[in-house]
Amino acid sequence: MYRSKKHRLGVAAVGLSAVLTLAACSSGDSEDTAATAEATEEVVVEESATEDTTQEEAEAAEETCVLPPGDIKVVSIDSMTGPAAFAGILAEKGADLALKEINASGVLGDGVTMSIELLDDATSPDEAAAQFSKAAKDPDVPVIMGGVISSGAVVTSPIAEKEKVAVVYTQAGSPGVVIGDYTFRYTPPMDSYWGGVGSYIEEKGIKTMSVLYANDNPTLIATAETALPALAADLGFEILSSTGLPNSTQDFKAPISKILKEDPDAVAVLMVGAQNATVVSQMRESGWEAPKELLGFAGIENNFADIGEAAKGVTWASIFHVDSPAQSTQAFVDAVAAEYDGEEASNYTAERYDATYLVANSILAACSTDRQAVRDAMADLTNGSITGALGDVTFENQDARVAGFVVQWDGEKMVVLK
Amino acid sequence: MLEVTDLVVRYGPVQAVSDMRLTATPGQITLVLGANGAGKTTTLRTICGLQRAVSGSVTLNGQNILGLSPSRIVRLGVAMVPEGRRVFAPLTVEDNLRLGGYTASRQDNDRTMAEVYEMFPILHERRSGVSGLLSGGEQQMLAFGRALMSQAETILMDEPSMGLAPAIVDSVLESARGIADSGKAVLMVEQNAEAGLEIANDVVVVSRGEVVYQGSAEGARKNPELVRAFLGDAALTDD
Amino acid sequence: MVQDLLNATTLASIYVLFALGMSLVWGTIGILNFAHGSIFMFSAFIAYLVVQQIPLGMPAVIAIAMVSGALIAVAMQYLVFQPIMKKAKNPHAGELQLVIGGIGLSAIPISFAQRSTLSNPFGFSAGTFETQAYTIGGVIITNVMIIILIVGLGLGVGTALWIRNSKKGLALRALGVDPEVSAMMGIDRPKLALATMLYSGALAGLAGALLTYYFNSITSESGDTLLLKAFAIIILGGVGSIFGVILGSFILAFAEFAVLLYTNGSWVTAVSFGLLFLILLIRPQGILGKKEVRRT
Amino acid sequence: MMGWIDQNEFLIGSTLTVFLLAISIQIPLRLGVISFASIGYYAIGGYGTAILMTQYDVSTWTSVVVASMAAAVVATLLGLIISRLNGLYLAMATVSFSLLLSAIAVNGGSVTGGAVGLFGVIGDITIWHTAGIAVVIIFLVSFTERGKLSRRIDATREDSQLASAMGINVTAYRRLSFPISGLIGGLAGALAVNLKTAINPESVNFTLVVLALTIIIIGGQASWIGALAGSLFFVWLPEILVFVGEWEEVVYGTLVVFAAVLVPGGVVGVFNDWRHRRSVARERPKVALLEAAAGESDAELTQSRSGKDG
Hints:
heterotetramer, C: 296 residues, two-stranded antiparallel sheet, 11 helices, 3% strand, globular, D: 310 residues, mainly alpha, 16 helices, disordered C terminus
């Protein structure tokens, strides 16, 4: 059923970012992906490539799928205020941009538009749950986009399963978020790609490592307690100590002193917010310089503005980078810059942008706003690889996976190492 | 001279004091008698600015002091020895006295403190001790001394004998007499009518917030039945 | 070892700076100020906003933070705490009312700062001050640490001595014991309360600026973390005792340090609450507190 | 109507569980005990239920009952060991008790699920069950707000010495408030975890202490109606404030400040004051007598007592 819309999508995407096309076309086989990668370079080729593969089917389907004119309202629950607002606000920029492109293209059909009702959860799980359950009980809402906080997502996921409405989360990296048929996540959990720094670890000859992590953040716990030990076993380096600290810790002199005594080759800093800046600068003040290494995690760059030079050389794995060679990422980066006054795109924006396209594509593929149809279409789409702002994304049980980049802070910004 | 005329005080809808009239004259003790809840403490609290009045006037040497802040009233010369003494228990005896002299000059403080120590040698003995550890009688002396430190000419005393052993009551009230004799005007509220009348010059009996008897203490002493009648009447409302 | 002791002492000095004003206000004029952390954060935030425009040195940044803190605290006292105290039917009801007022107040600056920074960390990197590290006999000390040690311990001891020996200090102690009798002594409570709040606010501002220098950056929520620790410190030392604040700060800082050094660290939050709970069971008036202190 | 209830099930459920938590704090508060241990009881009830249901496959209702009872037992013990304290010292001790439990939750490994907490607590408690429990508790609590018992409770709070003199066993009353508070607090947590299907350390931290406190003070300390009004207000406030968008927190803070300054008795207190004034006006002569009897330094007490007598 969903395959039938390919043709329309392909054509519509011509004037657009390549993302829509790619997302729709890449239902799993590598030939498709290759064809579309080519297509992004040249519009004409792209169109024909798409037609080549699915012309017959598509033409047959063209007649059958017409979404009824009107507005398709999708609910988005995100943290626009409170401690997670920095991520929520950037994420919604991605959603807005995607939405604008989709509606401008007319891809959904004559007189069909999509709109997003944005609800702020104020970084509170209870508010997220209250709004989610309301949206889930509204039969006119075909699909929901979920917010950035894990503690909210673990509460809203059972509601989605119970009310049988698909939800696509971005961020929300905790276990217990993707729990069944109706829950999808467009942000790969950090522990799934942190291993990307493995090559760097090998290259630098790191043999010993100490870990400092936030013991009240699910994502960072998983990275410190699961991903890192696995990587250590894999690459044969030793983790000398793993110190879990609560987010109320402000002075890190004591754990740093402990680590300095252990004298590892590298220290992994997996803390929350300003703590990263404090740890890194206090490490530097304690004389921690190259060739001693500092490793971080995705998003850590947001905390480095104020310590600048001190964070130079911190290395981590990121799922997104503006200098990524992927065509689709570059198209997205340009679109963000054009839309938002030259702003540099962030991973939060990219994830939500892709997630918004996934939602639109699922509705198109289902050719319906019926919840079950949309969720089935989404399951099919995520069965394969999707190329978008994040580059190539695959899914494991409806949970995103990307290869990621190794990036480093150069004193002012993060740069891709390879 | 302190004059209270037609004073009315309310707690919300409850009238605690109505049409209170009192005078305190230098060198004299004016004793206010009355049952629990008759409005005596409220009157004293109103005079020193801790309680707001509805109407009436309180003047000190002709100047109105009603409605002024407590700290302003102390500066004008009215000091209070509160019910239950209320010394600053964790502070030393000397600190308590220094607080009494908070509004006075350093010279006045030095001089008065010497006088207080002379009057109550036990305070001098225990001047660096924590005042909370003093006995009840000693604390009462400290409260007197503290009030004297302010250089106030009018001193209000709220139940100075309360909770004290009978043996000490006399000596405490003797001290109060001494204070009046030194030229201060003393306005004293007492439950112990008999002991109070021994040292007072004038007596005022209040019941349910109103003055029911006013006259010389001597007269009252000579005619104890009279006072007892009023007190008895007032005491009845206790049940 | 020497390094660890020095680091722990620096942390203790930070705690002193933060808890000093809070303890003073609680122990004397009876306000348990839940907005203290907010004042701390927002003063640093205002200094940050100014530094973003004009690159200033440390003295100017500290001055801005202190003035901001003092003004915010005075405004809070004048607009909220004083009216509550005036209206309170009894001290017990007033106490809770003040706590609630502080909670409401604290939400406002935090929300403003969150909006403005999107909860990202902020610091004074746009200013001209540079952190320098010196190595003396194998021990590393930074110029910020030296300033914190001197200012924190100096102000702590200085304030304690002032409270103990000056006339106004005596008046403040009296207010802490019995506000009503203090008024009978001629102590002008509202005026003294305003002055105390001003001092406490300035201290919060000072702590905010110095901590931002020390940690390099703080966030809108940083004040709340310290608030809970300050409760522990104040009760540990004894409400109303300034030397108690110093003692409490050292105990907490060294206890936390020990936990972080000798365990895997995850129980460090429990240290402050555990100590607080324990001390309340054994010696509720605090280590240096006097039993008779009325304010409960 | 049913549609509306269905749509707002979560908010209604939250209101009810927050209300139970508020009642759990209010009961000791009415006796003059400022205790925030209820957050800890809530944690015990919530985690206990979640652990029993997800790790031991115990049935929903058994889990709820066992976890609430456990909270009551812990509360009783706590009441015994902190009986020496009062005022803000007691408040602080109970805050640290609650936050210690939260630290245990973080460090509890697989039993408590650490920072992630426990999720997938899917039982068979509906909104109607929760509402039913709330009504029963209101019914029981309202008994303590009438007649002789109410006066004894008021006296214990306003002047414990006077209350003792009147023959009220103040210590016993205060001590008894702990298990009751514990049971209701534990129940609140147990029902909340069934509503939310998840619990984590974040949901039992200092923020909840602050929320509970504001609810009681803003709503009113004296009656369950105050707790209900406060719960309604704070749970629904974000819904109401949607139009102010990003300034929600500022508006919230300002409202709390205004309430603290202008309406010390809470929203319900304002209403009671008004009612009270009317009844007092009618009972003037009686009031004067009572006032004289009670002693002027206790005028406040007299006032409230006489109001209820009339």
